[in-house]
Amino acid sequence: MKVNELRELRERTKEELEAKLLEIKKSLFALKFQKATGQLDNPVKIRNLRKDIARIETLLREKELNRKKELIKENAGIDSDTEEEAGRKQIKRKIKLRKKV
Fold first, then answer.
1. More confident residue, 34 or 70
2. pLDDT score for 96
3. Cα(21)–Cα(66) distance, rounded to whole angstroms?
4. Rounded CA gap, 5 and 11, in Å?
5. Could you tell me the maximum CA-CA distance found in the chain, to the nearest angstrom?
6. What pLDDT was estimated at residue 52?
7. Less packed terminus of the chain by CB within 10 Å, N or C?
8. pLDDT at 101 over 60
9. Of all residues in the chain, what percent carry a pLDDT higher than 90?
10. What whole-number distance in Å separates Cα of residue 21 and Cα of residue 57?
11. Residues 6+ positions from 6 with CB-CB distance below 8 Å
């Protein structure tokens, strides 16, 4: 899969990615059937399709995690700035604890 194709996949919606995933899985099934019957010319196609499936599933998972992250921020009313400040405060507390010991 080329870089341009990957960029196009990133721009697609969840539903479009799921449709593409189903299409690729059907193609993979057909190729595996051809392999079993001895009609497959290029066995590398199977490996490429498996990798494409993994790429799409990865993108779907990324979208899912990003959506969960957005929901958590919305529900908690936290901005990214306050998250950074909270992280800094936590680091400062750890440093103080180390100095005391």
1. 34
2. 72
3. 20
4. 10
5. 73
6. 95
7. C
8. no
9. 55
10. 8
11. 55
Residue 73 amino acid letter: K
Boundaries of every domain in the chain: 3-100
Alpha-carbon distances, residue 75 vs 65, 70, 71, 86 (angstroms): 15, 9, 6, 17
- Give backbone dihedrals phi and psi of 57, rounded to 5 degrees, phi first: -65, -35
CATH dotted code for 3-100 = 1.10.287.310
Range 8-16 contact pairs with CB under 8 angstroms and sequence separation of 24 or more: 9/55, 9/56, 9/59, 10/59, 14/60, 14/63
Are 59 and 9 in contact by the 8 Å Cβ rule? The answer is yes
Residue type, 18: E
Could you tell me if 24 and 49 are in contact, meaning their C-beta atoms sit under 8 angstroms apart? Answer: yes
